[in-house]
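ok here's the first one, seq then struct tokens
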Amino acid sequence: MEYTKNKRDYQISLRRGFIGYSILLFSIFFLMSCKGLQKDTVVYFNDFEGELLTNITDGKVEKYNGTKVLGRYSQHGFTLNLKDLPVHNMMQITFDLYIHDTWDGNTVKPEGPDIWIMNIDRWSAVYATFANGLFTDYRQSYPVLQPNYDPNTGFLFINNKPNSNAIKTDLPGACKLSDKKGGTSMYRITRTIEHHESSFELGCYAQLEDSDLPNKNCNESWSVDNLKIMTIELK
């Protein structure tokens, strides 16, 4: 499965996303001005404690820090597909993202960049780097969700501090830094999008660089917990 698009497809996907969010903002303003009612319906929730992987392709469950999580993944990831959704105008996707061990953020090859990816219905919702571990001089683009693009130099990631916008930074690592406090950072990912279709696809993946290929899965990985999908109907 191809998780990332070529530059042209990425730009088309990104433009579609921007257009969709512009329409979403207008829709919210218009509907709020009409003082309509909002109906929220949770169509999917999984804390993975029961190890249920219904509707998830390439799913796996692992214990981490006293709980069970979807993952761990390194280079690859998972896809969630939902069908027969109730009538709705928008959807909200929320989950906890764990960034484990030594992510090198915006660093260039062979150590980086280390990119985490979220696609919604196959368009790019998050394409951001993360920095985590012992090297505090590294930089990450998150919480900026998309990089700029220069046709001459390629993707240009914003330089934010490591662990920017993390809600926990004192968790133990999962493998390489399993004995280190601060080896894992946790982020709360929330996206609200305009959506009308009866089906929905969420894909989460990563593009991780590491010169130590035999130990790559131990050096840098990620996992997800408390995944909730909600439809929103604005009447």
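and now the second one, same deal
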Amino acid sequence: MGKPSAERKLSENEAMAMARTLRGGSRKLNLVASSIRGMSASKALAELSFSSRRIAGDVKKVLQAAIANAENNHQLDVDNLYVAEAYVGKSLTMRRFRARARGRAARIEKPFSRLTVVVREREETA
């Protein structure tokens, strides 16, 4: 009974982690995500630890989850991992209202974003 298992979307030397509701706009989050694309995993963690942006802490958690998935679920070597993909999309938007003059109201939008990080193991060059 039940559904058959789906095909793995990633190749054998990749692992992924995703955060579906990060509080913040996707344009701000993409600035942090683009700063770690292509870096080795350890270098990207150091970069995010010392970043002054608030969202960098959440990006660091997602990257650590991707590294843990690679190590525990796919038996990849942690020392050879690098950030292959880091992309951002929009998620839900909370809408709030603020009272304005003459009985009017202004809408305040509080956006959420989703972040996907894919780490890949470097091929050994001999």
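notes on #2: The chain is about 30% helix and 35% strand. The longest strand covers residues 81-99.
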